[in-house]
Specification:
One of its GO terms (molecular function) is corrinoid adenosyltransferase activity. This protein is mainly alpha-helical. Helices cover about 55% and strands about 5% of the residues.
Length: about 190
Amino acid sequence: MKIYTKQGDKGQTQLIGKRVSKTDPRVEAYGTVDELNSFIGSACAELEKTSMKKLLHELHEIQHELFDLGGDMADVSGKNKWKLTEKSVQRLEEQIDHHWDQAPEIRTFILPGGEPGAAQLHVCRTVARRAERLTAAASTEEPFPPQALPYLNRLSDYFFAAARAVNSDAGREDVLYARGSQVFSTDKE
């Protein structure tokens, strides 16, 4: 079997249900989800060098869900059941809370960086935000998977919390943004 089909040589691609331009907003959105999945793979390669095996398991689960989401986003047929569910969003919220509790309290913005794995997770965070924006734009055209936007929104928060947990686990402080003022308040105030 050959990997190339030559079907896309004229700038078109096949969704599940119709053929569209490769610049279609839906294709841009699920292409960015695919890009995010690749960046997660890069983060996993860095994190394999750490003791954070539970985080690696979570990231692999997210990769599978992103693959499902890409398939959901490519389906305009209306005939298939969405694979990504609200349960995935709820699980992310629980994981965000767990990772957030692993890192020290912050009151200012932080800069991406610290441990290599944490820096890679910050890249994932920014790509997840872009995927969310592109998905929001594409979802105005046709029906979209209902959990796509909530999932991508939580996912960027997940990467932020996980990056901070990686730095904390390594005994490394987050890189604080020094030119700003306090932006986060606590319940203690």
